[in-house]
Amino acid sequence: MVNENGIKLKVRNLEISYGDTVALSGVNLDIHEHEIFGIIGPANSGKTSLLKAINRMDQFTKGMHYSGDIHFSGRDVRHLKNIYALRSRIGVVFPLPVGLPMSIYDNVALSPRLRGIKNKKELDEIVERCLTRAALLDEVKDRLHTLGSLLSGGQQQRLTIARALSQEPELLILDEFSIAVDPVTTMRIEDILKDLKKDMTIILVTNLVQQARRLAKRVAFFLNGECVEIGNTEDLFTGKTMDQRTTDYIQGKFG
Amino acid sequence: MEDLNSISLNSQNEKNIGSDQLDQRNLDWYIDKAVSMIVFIAGISAIIFIVGIFLFIAKEGLSFIIKDMDFTEFFTSPYWEPSDEDAPEYGILALILGTASVTGLAMLIAIPFSLGTAIYISEFATGRTKEFLKILVELLAAIPSVVWGFIGLTIMNPIIIKLFNVPVGLNILNAGVILGLMAAPIMTSIAEDTLKAVPDHYREAAEALGATKWQMIYKVVLPAAKNGLLGAVLLGVGRGFGETMAVLMATGHSINIPTSIFDSVRALTATIAAELGETAQGSEHYGALFTIGIFLFLITFIINLSADLIIRGVRKK
Questions:
Q1: Where are the domains of chain A?
Q2: Strand, coil or helix: B168
Q3: Does B211 touch chain A (CB under 8 A)?
Q4: Quick one: average pLDDT of B230-258?
Q5: Could you tell me the pTM of the whole model?
Q6: Domains and their CATH numbers in chain B
């Protein structure tokens, strides 16, 4: 697979629109392998639309249309013959935890099973490994076969992360994962992410600017469908910004 | 806040307009009471009517059950010969088998059709196609059963005779197909409602995992909806057991222990419909027909109740 100098995801001149409304335009991004890339910005700034375009979920969103280029591992995602394979390499964690209405075990084993793994022992290993990495195993190991949707919000979010990890993704996308999670769990998940960085590329969409500062090496600031600025986290947070709006947002003057 | 306090604390303060209004029931209050009374009466009367109907049927059948009925004969004898003057026999085994075989065949036909249609409407169809199909399905559900019976009698009958080279086309096959087509729309409608109730974020989550559409439906949507789907099937079964007119017209209405789908049979419901008008009120035959009524009532009641409990189970989750 072509890796242009370790760039996992390359976005060029991306414009996303819903019907006649432009949700996002003029986005150019390079996301490197094994980095945590933060995307910050207030609601309605086009962050989630970008994520949908990356793993081709645009197909299921009525009226969503995009132009420009998105290259994943050097491949143009719009000209792939098997978008299911693309999605299985990109793990997504949604804002609200989604425990599928099946057992905890089956939740995590779903993706390996979709890939065709049937061997019980192999599945057991995957489930155990993913739950451990998502820091959930200790809390649920006695009830792996109870419904995943009965877990608490924070546990379900870690279950969602475990499920995303079971895909063995090359790219993990977290879309405001801490919205429905308490601060303690949030910190635990942040620790997990720091550790996961060595195995995969992570895109962290968040509206908690401090979270982006704690985790991401580089940050993009989105505002009203525009990518205002991309820079090193430390630069942006110490006031070395190109655009005044970035500083204002980071310092909490609006948003 | 301070104003409020002074109102409630200083009752001597006559100038406060608010203090009187607090103790006055206005028109809105009476309308509210009246409406809740009317709704209560309407609601309770439905229950009273159903209990009343059951009591009436039970009363008419009771004398037969107590005096003349032989339980073993009633449920195990295949001979339904109420008009035999010397020794009338009341065995409903053939009728039970008639109803069961027709309903069974109908479900074999209706379940795949209705589930398939429901999955198509809910998961694949979009926009106008979807709306059009939903309206069409509801329209089909509204076709009167006598029309279905008519179709069985005049269209299905010659087709079956020609196709399978049998002497009579009014049989289990005919009634089963007709009943299946009749039950399918209502089952589709309920199954589609159940599938629609599966939250979209389940679908998104499955798709994000890389599931294909069919994998998503099979692994996530159907399991999530399984109780509601089972409820839809049971309602279809209930419909099959209770259906009278179409079955009367399409089965051939002859008493038989069926051995193949080309045998004519007679259904429990059709027997009541066809014979009740010719019996003397209070006679043994009359009581026997009402006993069948009680039996049917209990069966449909159990089927509907379990369907209801199962569907309720879905909502709780």
A1: 7-250
A2: coil
A3: yes
A4: 90
A5: 0.80
A6: 89-316 (1.10.3720.10)
